[in-house]
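Long-time lurker. I teach an intro course on protein structure, and each term I like to show students one example going from raw sequence to a predicted 3D structure in token notation. This year I'd like something fresh instead of my usual example. Would anyone be willing to generate the tokens for the chain below so I can use it in lecture? Attribution to the forum is fine with me.
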Amino acid sequence: MKRYREIYRAEQLPVFQNRMFLTEQAAKDCVKGDVVLVQDSETGLIFNQAFKPELMQYDSDYQNEQAVSGAFQRHLQDVSALVTKHFPAYSLIEVGCGKGYFLEQLQKLGFEVTGLDPTYEGSNPSVIKEYFSPESGLRADGVILRHVLEHVQDPVGFLSKIRESNGGTGRIYIEVPCFDWTCNHRAWFDIFYEHVNYFRRSDFDRMFGKVYESGHIFGGQYLYVIADLATLRAPKYSKPDYFEFPEDFLGTVSRYAARLKTQDTERKRATAIWGGASKGVIFALFMERAGAKIDIVIDINPAKQGKYLAATGLLVQSPADAMHMLVPGADIFVMNSNYLGEIQELTAHQFNYLLVEHAA
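-- Reply from a regular --
Happy to contribute to a lecture. Here you go:
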């Protein structure tokens, strides 16, 4: 039996969904790569076999800060509660701290935290603008690893380096997208190049001998795990770990494209997508390839506004600017249902809001 079994393929996707571009042409000309998801028959893990790490160089043009949203701030409060519960009075290292919002939230709660991230743009002296490396010499009682593990080519090897760097001890909080949720909701727009790995809860039960707590968070879209670093081990595949996509996983691509084409033919009103991050980038690209037109991309993150989406070159606009271009009743495809209430309030409930997540 072959070790790797192909389960999904999407070619020529932008390697960075959250890198913003100053011109439409630069966005269209962005570096692209293939996604070929396979399942490893030895470990049971699912990953992009076509991933090329040399293409991934994160810098300050990478914009993935979600904390401008009240809904996401509430999510981070839930995470803070978990950290407070399992890491009382601990010193912490946050690997991949992004723009530092969550790190500073932990500092306000009294934690001693050191952050590592090359995309950091602020002035907090507790953040080191570098990738994690065992050579950094950092050690702490606990490690925070939020939305990092899905980006690294060898997740178990990466965790091993963290364990070794930390003297073989300590607790770790891991948060990643939940692949079961992606499949159950036919969220094909959640598969993209930046994410090498696609985790299920059972993967972490095989990775760690001792898991203090695990579960789902952020409306089920994310998995979290609190585990003992000393018990990290190579996961072993068993029959229950066998994975297959739902047969209709890509079924909504043609459905959404047909609706957009109808709007374009009638030309009665412009159509928008709300969310200029990873989901919106892939959604827009698949719609373009299906021959459907999106008129407007909306995002509340000021760092994205006035810039262009990777691959399609669509301009990202602020809610205020977009409202002038949309007539009441126009379609807005909402890229993430967690933000629906927030979006409806911002737009006075005057549009037709379409959730792109489809529950089985």
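Some talking points for your students: The two ends are 32 Å apart (CA to CA). The mean pLDDT is 92.
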